[in-house]
Design brief:
Keywords: Endonuclease, Exonuclease, Hydrolase, Nuclease. This protein has helices spanning about 25-35, 50-55, 65-70, 140-160, 180-185, 190-195, and strands at about 5-10, 40-50, 75-85, 85-95, 100-105, 115-120, 130-135, 165-170, 190, 215-220, 220-225, 240-249. It is an alpha+beta fold. A six-stranded mixed sheet has the order 3-4-2-1-12-11. The protein has a six-stranded mixed sheet with strand order 5-6-7-8-10-9.
């Protein structure tokens, strides 16, 4: 039985460097390939942008989630923000088959288009599937509370109580409210907080002071929980990725 899975969560800043000066999606692909996670939760994924495709040489000919998945990973993409030049949203990449997925709108205002991407993963020798949720929440605390409540309701309606569960993404939760809400309602634990006593500082990437990104799990033990700083990550996005190794059973 496959006991361990490697999980990463990463806000890729639409495949651009922290100040939007360089196209770095090719470097992101190389870095993720070297990290070799089994499941990747991505935020700010550029599905299409006609202006940037003209601006930058070597802009991928496929959407970023497809390009990052390559030939080895399955993928699902939740299109959240749609504008005249294209669209962006969240994505899940997986070494395991994605047997079902859906994107739930949790938008509260026209300036922050948000979605909750739900993927069901079939993992060999597991008697139940893994439910994976990728999310990017609003900047205002009162909005995040409403979105967390909507997330809890969605998960309670769609996920059996005994099913393994991972919720990951950019929570914008510098007030550290999400852990109490999700822990009490969904009985999840946060990977980095469980291992190290507090959530990971992941923003801004070169001198992280804010705990914005999280990986919440249910039905797993935590073996490793890291925030990935330094090279190459410090030049690829304004967020540092989170990485954890989960043990099942």
């Amino acid at each position: 039985m496959e006991r361990r899975i490697k999980v990463a969560s990463y806000n890729i800043h639409k495949g651009l460097s922290p100040l939007n000066r360089r196209l770095v999606v090719h470097d992101v692909r190389h870095a993720l390939h070297n990290l070799a996670p089994d499941v990747v939760f991505l935020q700010e994924v550029q599905g299409e942008h006609s202006s940037r495709a003209r601006q930058f040489n070597y802009w991928p000919t496929t959407p970023q989630h497809e390009y990052l998945a390559g030939n080895d990973l399955s993928f699902a993409y939740g299109r959240n923000a749609i504008h005249r030049l294209g669209h962006h949203g969240n994505a899940v990449l997986s070494r395991f088959p994605i047997t079902r997925w859906g994107n739930h709108d949790i938008t509260l205002n026209r300036f922050e288009k948000r979605g909750l991407l739900h993927c069901v993963l079939e993992i060999p020798s597991w008697n139940v599937p893994l439910h994976a949720f990728c999310v990017h929440l609003n900047l205002l605390a009162r909005d995040r509370r409403k979105q967390l409540a909507a997330m809890v309701e969605q998960i309670q309606n769609e996920v059996p109580k005994n099913a393994p569960l991972v919720i990951a993404g950019d929570f914008n939760d510098w007030r550290r409210e999400a852990t109490h809400i999700l822990g009490s309602e969904l009985h999840v634990i946060e990977a980095f907080e469980t291992m190290h006593g507090s959530p990971a500082r992941s923003f801004p990437v070169r001198m992280p002071v804010l705990s914005l990104d999280r990986i919440y799990v249910r039905g797993f033990g935590i073996e490793v929980a890291d925030v990935l700083g330094g090279q190459p990550w410090s030049h690829l996005s304004d967020h540092a990725p989170l990485y954890t190794v989960l043990r099942r059973g």
